Amino acid sequence: MAVEPTRWYFSLRSPYSWLAYRELTENAPDVAERIEWRPYWEPGAASARLLAGTDIRLPYVPMSKEKHLYILQDVKRLAAERGLAVAWPVDTEPDWDVSHLGYLVAEDAGLGREFIGLAYRARFERGLDLSERAVVAAIGTELGLDPDTLGNAADDPAVLARGVEALRTIGRDGVFGVPFFVHGPDRYWGSDRLNGFLAGVRAAA
């Protein structure tokens, strides 16, 4: 019998993923250590060109101004409840390939989760633009990895191909937003559903 998957999908773009990441790693490390971590992102120019020739269809919907303003207010409120301050980045033309493909390189080196932590800190606590290759390269330096390889991961055809395959799993799992948690047949969407996911995983264990 096939083992049912237990994983979560995160995005370095999403402040709700940032909050879920902190909750997982700080308050539920037992679960964080035994589940799969999968990236979810809006394809940048390089990934989009490769996806154009496939049957992969991603459920992205442009965000309205009203929703954007609500998220700014909501995340500020949720962060304050956790004793956190948000430093919102200014990224008018983001390319999410840069950071998420950089994550794949760090993951190959066994430092994927450390990369995520530093990327979230850069974006939501320091207000840096993760589309800037220099920002991702600096994370590589901090991790002791080659900064050029990390910062320019989007130029590597092999990493790009892996990124496309990672995006393919989004459709297979029915993911339509982040954070998104999968435990067997059960799906949980949003940081406010994290406790339900944790309870399910712990009960099964």
TrEMBL record:
Keywords: Isomerase. It comes from the Bacteria. Its EC number is 5.99.1.4. Residues 9-197 form the DSBA-like thioredoxin domain. SUPFAM superfamilies: Thioredoxin-like. GO terms for molecular function: isomerase activity. It catalyses: 2-hydroxychromene-2-carboxylate = (3E)-4-(2-hydroxyphenyl)-2-oxobut-3-enoate. Pfam families: DSBA. Gene3D superfamilies: Glutaredoxin. Belongs to the GST superfamily. NadH family. PANTHER family: GLUTATHIONE S-TRANSFERASE KAPPA, GLUTATHIONE S-TRANSFERASE KAPPA 1. This is 2-hydroxychromene-2-carboxylate isomerase.
